Amino acid sequence: MELLLSPGNKELAIDALIAILKIAVIFNALLGLFSLMTYIERRVLAFMQFRRGPNRVGPWGILQPAADGIKLFFKEEVMPEGAHKFLFFAAPVVAIITAYVSLAVVPYGGPLVIPFYGQVTIFGRPIDLQIADLDVGILFIFAITSLGVYGIVLAGYASNNKYSLLGGLRSSAQMFSYELALGMSWVSVIMAAGSFRLGDIVATADRMNVWVWFAMQFPAFIIYMIAACAEVNRTPFDLAESETELVAGFHTEYSSMKFALLQMAEYINMITVCALASNMFLGGWLSPLPGILPNSPLWFFAKMLFLLFVFIWIRATVPRFRYDQLMDFGWKRLIPAAALWVVFFSGMTAFFGEKKSPPTTTAAVSTMAPVGQVSR
Questions:
Q1: Most CB atoms closer than 10 Å: which of 81, 156, 174, 259?
Q2: How many other C-beta atoms can be found within 10 angstroms of the C-beta atom of residue 240?
Q3: What is the Cβ-side half-sphere exposure of residue 286, based on CA atoms within 13 angstroms?
Q4: Is 184 in contact with 342 (CB distance < 8 Å)?
């Protein structure tokens, strides 16, 4: 009993409680944002294409996401004969887990402050709007989002359907093609900030001024948005689910809640890339008018929602590529452009960047062996 009540265990219990509360809040917020995005996308697409959009369920059709959820929940579960049972069930689970886990290291703001109340604390600890603040946060996101393609590939392979299989194969080739450009678009950001932590990147943008930071990283931002659109299988890069050729692609044989999980994973991945772009290129929760308007998490969500609107805008405007055009654009245009930007920014950083010498500690000097002597 004394061991359980020790100060170290109390601190650990408080940390666990705060982490569980953050996970619960963010999980439910993402569920709500996913439902809202399905409605917003339909309404925006309808407006841009001179249609009415959802307007039957509730005022202005605002209850349409709830109706869709009820329909999918009670719809019959169908699995094709000859499908791989375990992988058929595992594919939606892999897709949704990787989509959620990648958001664990995304910061939504600094310490939580409520107007007219002040800083919010739990047991005297400030609440940071981030589940986990990792030193290698960008690498963690890159690794987890790379695993998300396995959900699509498994869904296509396990369905025992040639259209689904073609969609899964297309997705894997598309991931390899555009993930290189996506990763290279981050290099200039990491070099300028000198850190893989998203919080340090936002702090660097704050130190340099948000607009200066955005102008400096604008080519990387354009490359990132194009590659991210391909990574999350959004139009004009949605060849994995091309309904004009593959019926519905990798999720042709899915129905009910399994189909809902695959759709939810696509939208949450879209939210993830927009949240990441908001932090890396647009200054996150920093005010666009420094010194005039205060920094706030509301700025982060406003920037993220604007980027989500851009994804919807692109879907309504740009026609789908042919598959050969998709691969040609990725390998012959986007990757060379990203490589040239990395070389250019590296040269500019080497010539005009801040010169830093590696730190030399007393411990490191004391452990060095004298000249001519081999250290053991």
A1: 156
A2: 28
A3: 27
A4: yes
Q: CB 33: neighbour CB atoms within 10 A?
A: 18
The domain locations on the chain are 81-348
Instruction: Kindly state the greatest CA–CA separation across the chain.
Output: 85
CB atoms within 10 A of CB 178: 24
Q: Which amino acid is at 183?
A: G
At 246, the amino acid letter reads L
Contact by Cβ (8 Å): 130, 204: no
Rounded CA-CA distance 143/274 in Å is 17
Residues 293-335 have pLDDT tens digits of 888 889 999 999 999 999 999 988 888 888 888 889 989 999 9
Give the Cα separation of 354 and 367 in Å (integer). Answer: 29
Length, in residues, of the chain? 376
**CA 283/CA 135 separation, integer angstroms:** 18
33/39 Cα distance (integer angstroms): 10
3-state SS class at 129: coil
From the CB of residue 298, how many other CB atoms can be counted at a distance below 10 Å?
12
| Neighbouring-strand partners of residue 122 | 125
* Tokens standing for residue 241: 């689910």
End-to-end CA distance of the chain: 46
Report pLDDT for 340.
Answer: 95
Asked whether 61 and 53 are in contact (CB, 8 A), the reply is yes
Distance of CA 369 to the CA centre of its chain: 47
255 exposure class (CB count in 10 Å sphere: 0-12, 13-18, 19+)? middle
Point out the residues of the chain with pLDDT beneath 70. 1-8, 116, 242-245, 247, 353-376
- Do 107 and 130 contact (CB within 8 A), yes or no? yes
- Rg of the chain, C-alpha, whole Å: 24
* pLDDT computed for residue 300 by the predictor: 92
Cα 46-27-54 angle, rounded to 5 deg = 15
Question: In 3D, which of 130, 97, 281 has the Cα closest to residue 193?
Answer: 281
> Do residues 224 and 185 touch, judged by C-beta distance below 8 A?
yes
